[in-house]
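Forum > Structural Biology > Help requests

Title: Can anyone predict the 3D structure of Alpha/beta hydrolase family protein?

Hi all, first post here. I have the sequence for Alpha/beta hydrolase family protein but no way to get a structure on my laptop. I'd be grateful if someone could post the structure tokens.
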Amino acid sequence: MRILKATVLLFAAWLLATTAYAQVKVQLIDPAATQAGIQTVHSPHMAMQPAAATNQHRLLLMIPGTGGAAVQMRSFDSCFAAMGYYVISLDYMNNVITTVCSKSEDSTCFDHFRQEIMFGTPVSDKVAVDSMNSIVHRVTALLKYLAGKDAGWKTFLSRGMPAWDKIVVAGHSQGAGHAAFMGKHFRMGGVLLFSGPQDYLQQFHRPAGWQWEHGLTPVGRYYAFLHVRDPYVFDYQAQDVAAVIRPATADTTMVSPGVTVVGKRQVLVTDIDRKDTHGATLSTEFVPVWRYMISNATKK
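Reply #1:
Sure, ran it for you. Structure tokens for Alpha/beta hydrolase family protein below:
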């Protein structure tokens, strides 16, 4: 009887997940269509709406890594949409790799790199991003565009600006640093970091200064997922994450594919054997890890 009950429950869970995936609405939006002056860099923005029955009334904003196109995040985004989240993957100015600042003798190199890409402030000699094409403006324009087409997206706007407290920002590699930077400047609903940040000053033997700054997002809402053999150096990433989330615990816990995560640790690591260890944190075999991260990050 117990086996039969467990089988029924598993089937019900599978059916619910399958239904949720089937009812996800996917849109591709040309960035240039959201406002005059905004450029398309790699691909359309990608937006997903969850099934009504699973709607969490929260938005996950995904920021890809260096050279990454929004449409390449489809598998990742689909998993979160199936969990009930609205999801956006952003096309943005990401052709310059973050590690251009790693060996800089300018201790503010990373700070200015992030500032210019996030807000369009002309402070970096490594990138050239105007305010129109900054991450914040591109997100704002996209949300206004989506809200004009479907009232469901209006939830994530407040007085013409993103309702940051209803938005969980996630990022991979370079995008992880942007997500953490955004968490410093806005009170986000949560911050999820995958395989980053990479903002370690090798000449100074410490994380970049912006990571130590007091931020508007509570440190308990940050969760990171790293690979111990990441070619961008796990030890540097771990120190960056520890700087970002202090004084919260920076202790790590090892996770495995397909295994439910329990506990309260904010830094999750894997040693899974994959050719692309840097991209392994975005593998759909880690959906239970992602669920743990976003569920804990959004707890009130």
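The longest strand covers residues 167-172. Helices lie at 2-22, 31-34, 74-82, 109-119, 135-149, 174-185, 234-245, 287-297.
Shout if anything looks off.
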